[in-house]
Design a protein that fits this description.
The chain is of the alpha+beta class and 297 residues long. It has a single domain, classed as Beta Barrel (Porin). 16% of the residues lie in helices and 36% in strands. The chain has helices at residues 4-12, 36-48, 138-141, 146-153, 192-202, 288-291; strands at residues 15-18, 21-24, 56-64, 74-83, 87-96, 99-109, 158-162, 177-184, 224-228, 230-235, 245-255, 258-267, 272-284. The longest helix is centred in the N-terminal third of the chain and has 13 residues, at 36-48. It is globular, with a radius of gyration of 19 Å. It starts with a helix and ends in a 6-residue tail after the last helix.
Length: 297
């Protein structure tokens, strides 16, 4: 039986159709539509596959335009926008059923040395000192919609340990901050490109949800409509996605049915290895049927 980690690595390993054209499969992990992290990770994998040099990805800026169909593959077209003396830029367009559902620009740089500084990692317990999340009792799980049951009951490729856990089914109001330790649940190879694609995938977990904290709502409630609108990711230093990383997230504001969230990713030595930002739709609707329809920009 294939492990969730092997399935994820396969998911990020795209089929090359032409020099700049790739096809990726989709996975149903319990979300209503294709998980945004899947498209981020696959798009970065596609862009990395078109580099003829050994430059490292340092930034990715993306927009989600339409909800992805879990039952269909996604085709990625990569435009080799520029290969300069030190930097390369790629634009990636994701297409499904003849329509663009996502696009991004990714930038790559030769490895260089220069001045360095960073904000310190928050003082939090180590992951070994935090108990893993306990599964929901069966009698509670069976009262939830089928998709939510699958999401909460699945054994995913990443292990998460929340420094300050929150009951997502009965969420209290609290300030918009959270810290989450995470790592891939199995060891994988040493390819830096793979680890960056894995982090792109994982960076979509927990980010936008932080913007719901002050309002006492969550994605699991039937009258809450949420969708990622954009996503930015910066890679600062080398890391491994199969070793513990701390995701420190805050939400500086929400307005106009949109919430903004920012994240910083640290390794266990306290080095800042990546940063993220995302704005997303957060809308309270009349009923579950309205929430099931997610409009796109």
């Amino acid at each position: 039986m294939t492990s969730p980690v092997s399935e994820l690595v396969d998911l990020l390993s795209l089929e090359r159709l032409e020099d700049n054209l790739f096809r990726g499969q989709s996975r149903d992990i319990g979300t209503k539509y294709v998980f945004g992290g899947q498209v981020l990770g696959q798009a970065l994998s596609a862009a990395q596959s078109t580099l003829d040099n050994h430059r490292d990805a340092h930034s990715l800026h993306a927009y989600f335009l339409r909800a992805g169909d879990i039952e269909a593959p996604i085709v990625y077209f990569v435009d080799r926008t520029r290969d300069g003396g030190s930097f390369s830029v790629r634009r990636v367009t994701a297409i499904q059923h003849g329509q663009v559902i996502f696009f991004c620009a990714a930038s790559f740089q030769d490895r260089e040395n220069g001045p360095e500084h960073q904000l310190p990692m928050p003082a939090v317990p180590q992951p070994e000192d935090i108990e893993p999340s306990r599964p929901l009792p069966p009698e509670v799980l069976e009262t939830l919609p089928t998709k939510v049951q699958r999401w909460l009951d699945r054994m995913g490729p990443f292990e998460f340990r929340h420094v300050y856990p929150r009951d997502e089914l009965k969420p209290p109001k609290r300030p918009p901050f959270q810290q989450v330790w995470f790592r891939l649940s199995e060891k994988v190879g040493d390819s830096p490109e793979l680890h960056r694609s894995l982090l792109a995938y994982a960076s979509d977990f927990h980010l936008l949800g932080t913007a719901t904290f002050p309002h006492g709502i969550s994605y699991y409630q039937p009258n809450v409509q949420m969708a990622s609108l954009d996503h930015a990711l910066w890679f600062h230093r080398p890391f491994r996605a199969d070793e513990w990383l701390l995701y420190s997230i805050d939400s500086p504001g929400a307005q106009g049915n949109r919430g903004l969230a920012r994240g910083m990713v640290y390794d266990r030595d306290g080095r800042l290895v990546a940063s993220t930002a995302q704005e997303g739709l957060i809308r309270l609707v009349a009923d579950a049927a309205a929430a099931a329809h997610v409009p796109r920009a």
